[in-house]
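Q: What structure does this chain adopt?
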Amino acid sequence: MLPQLTTSIAALGLWAAFGYLLGAIPFGMVLARVMGLGNLRDIGSGNIGATNVLRTGSKKAAAATLILDGGKGAVAVLLARALAGEDAAQIAGLMAFIGHCFPVWLGFKGGKGVATFLGLLLALFWPAGLAACATWLATAVVTRISSLSALVAAVLAPIWMGLLGAPQGVALVMALAALILWRHSANIARLRSGEEPKIGKK
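A:
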């Protein structure tokens, strides 16, 4: 089920552009440079997200990256919802996720979108967002593997949306979950071979 279309196509296009440009801000790269941690492309997996920032040894930078990457997804949804409607909120959230994964500033080579996904999910429907965050945390505590935690949280997120009372967001969350699985294809291969590194391992 999708939300009712109440916003004009032109306005939806503007919200899509806003969401993309906000999502495309590479906070991990910026923080690593500002805090003198080096170029994330040369560290660990080369990813721009919080898990790779943690491999620099700076928990403060990793936490800030997590909050900011999640925040840009949430802000995109909340602003679009407040100023336009639920249809605009979903478009802005989707494009914030796309912007993080494929930022124009980095040659369309961005992160895997997990923090942004969780942030926009909290803004879309906070009970499902909290359930997804709890799923990630529980899996991380048990396995100490960030990618597996992300995959489990992503797969269960559409179920949480439906079970907890937000059927109008299930289609979007299913699409985002599918993108997360695709972005983690290399991680899935390493998980199957037992070679995926644990959280904090350089």
